[in-house]
Design goal:
Elements lengths: L11 H56 L7 H15 L4 H13 L9 H4 L7 H7 L2 H9 L8 H7 L20 H16 L10 H10 L7 H12 L14 E5 L2 E5 L4 E3 L2
Antiparallel strand pairs: 1-2, 2-3
Length: 269
């Protein structure tokens, strides 16, 4: 039998060479695919570690705010708990949810610029004192905007006291101009604040807080956010965690602050 090409068909040797080349190409493709998957996995792990690092740094920064105001200690953490639960229940993208967690942890950081005597005042605030309190979203924005977060954390912090009808502050934005993340954070902030003790009043309770957002749904608060929040408490039996889920806790003893973590304790000078 002859192996030469006589009628346009390939010879046995040609077919064998092409088969070997195809096998080599397939092997190279499989190698590249394996390397691609490995790179994607490494990128995913790096992204998770980076996000965790950002969250831990954020929590450590936020802790400095609460150290100045023992009456609202844990407020930012609890607001974050509820805002996170609302955003997840609404089915928002995980990146948006992650941004809400970080913004929630920092939403009151601007209070660092407000005298502690005002933050902890047991009586009713004067108009001037309340005006000072109202500056904290802008102060917080000025701090947070210097950090290059992968989420719009600074605008969320700035807008968390804006209201649907334009009666909020600092800019008096109306519904269409307020970020959804800020609307979620605003509802969570109101619920936690009303349910908890404040220097100027005892806790009003969760029922009163839910009544507030229910009655003013659509006027001050976003309807979908409010409905989701109400369902969380009514159907999911949501409860604020009594202890912070963070790795960092502040313990005040004899005017000395000790910041502890799971790894080590450091006594402040």
């Amino acid at each position: 039998m002859m192996d030469s090409v006589t009628d346009g068909h390939k010879t046995k040797e040609q077919l064998m060479r092409e088969l070997v080349e195809l096998r080599q190409q397939l092997a190279e493709f499989e190698t590249l695919e394996t390397e691609r998957k490995r790179a994607e996995e490494e990128s995913r792990r790096y992204s998770e570690k980076l996000q965790k690092l950002i969250e831990n740094i954020t929590k450590a920064i936020a802790l400095t705010t609460e150290m100045r105001d023992p009456y609202t200690s844990g407020h930012q953490q609890r607001v974050t708990q509820l805002a996170y639960a609302i955003s997840e229940a609404m089915g928002l993208d995980k990146e948006i949810v992650a941004g809400i967690r970080v913004a929630g942890s920092l939403h009151d950081i601007g209070k660092m610029y407000i005298p502690s005597e005002i933050l902890t005042k047991p009586g009713k605030l004067t108009e001037i004192e309340f005006d000072m309190i109202r500056t904290h979203p802008e102060a917080g924005y000025s701090i947070v905007k210097t950090i290059e977060f992968p989420w719009p954390v600074a605008p969320i912090v700035l807008q968390h006291h804006e209201r649907m009808d334009g009666s909020g502050y600092p800019a008096g934005l109306s519904a269409k101009d307020i970020l959804l993340e800020a609307k979620i954070l605003g509802v969570a902030d109101v619920v936690e604040a009303m349910a908890s003790h404040r220097p100027y009043r005892p806790a009003l309770g969760i029922d009163k807080a839910l009544e507030e957002i229910s009655q003013k749904k659509g006027m001050l608060y976003d309807p979908e956010v409010v409905d989701t929040c109400l369902k969380l408490f009514a159907e999911k039996k949501f409860k604020f965690q009594k202890e912070t889920p963070w790795q960092y806790q502040a313990v005040v003893r004899n005017k000395h602050t000790i910041v502890t973590s799971k790894l080590r304790g450091i006594k402040a000078n």
